[in-house]
Design brief:
It is built from six helices and ten strands; from the N terminus they run H-E-E-H-H-E-E-E-E-E-H-E-E-H-H-E. The chain is α+β, with helices and mostly antiparallel strands.
């Protein structure tokens, strides 16, 4: 995945119109509102998938069927105990971190123009993962560490990457003026609060 790939994904997801009647990007069938997504490694895009296509890539033979090009974006959401991301150089309270297949990690923070990104220090990330073992098990390119410490929140999650794209879309949609206005942060908080219903706690590290 190239350095600009996630930025492209964010722009694509943020520009989608809610309720526009989306279709499966593989077969063209209608995709229900709660459809799954695939990561297209060749084009570095997130694609909509109908149920039959999503099931195809959920099987163990997915790599053979798609020649390694498509990966199903997982559904798991794990609520973590607060972790310190200060060493990663995060300048704002809302950010997400995506590990890549080559071992590097890209950080992004949402803005009214999309998502600003930078590559985090590899040693700093390894140290953080050492203190929080679930981070070492994240699936490259399709899972992210999502952090929100804005306005005294202490939210730390492992989420599917499409959840992060939804956060970016919320910020772009609700931001007003120079400081964001009165709508953006309640909307972000409401989205993160809604993750709780589908989340599971992180399991302790095995001895």
């Amino acid at each position: 995945m190239s350095r600009g790939a996630l930025a492209g994904l964010v722009r694509s997801a943020a520009d989608r119109r809610a309720g526009a009647g989306e279709r499966c990007d593989l077969c063209g069938r209608d995709a229900p509102d709660e459809h799954r997504h695939l990561f297209d490694a060749e084009r570095a895009e997130v694609l909509c998938a109908c149920r039959p296509c999503a099931l195809l890539f959920a099987r163990d033979a997915a790599d053979a069927a798609g020649e390694g090009r498509y990966r199903l974006v997982p559904r798991r959401r794990v609520r973590l105990a607060p972790v310190s991301t200060a060493s990663l150089g995060v300048p704002v309270g809302l950010a997400f971190f995506v590990p890549r297949a080559d071992g590097t990690v890209l950080a992004h923070y949402p803005s009214p123009a999309g998502a600003t990104r930078w590559e985090v220090d590899a040693d700093a990330w390894r140290a953080l993962a050492g203190s929080c073992p679930p981070l070492a098990d994240m699936a490259a390119d399709v899972e992210a560490l999502l952090v929100n410490t804005a306005r005294e929140r202490r939210d730390h999650w492992i989420v599917p990457v499409d959840d992060c794209l939804r956060v970016v879309a919320i910020v772009r949609r609700e931001w007003r003026g120079l400081s964001g206005g009165s709508r953006v942060w309640p909307a972000v908080d409401a989205f993160l609060d809604g993750l709780t219903a589908s989340a599971r706690p992180a399991r302790p590290a095995q001895p």
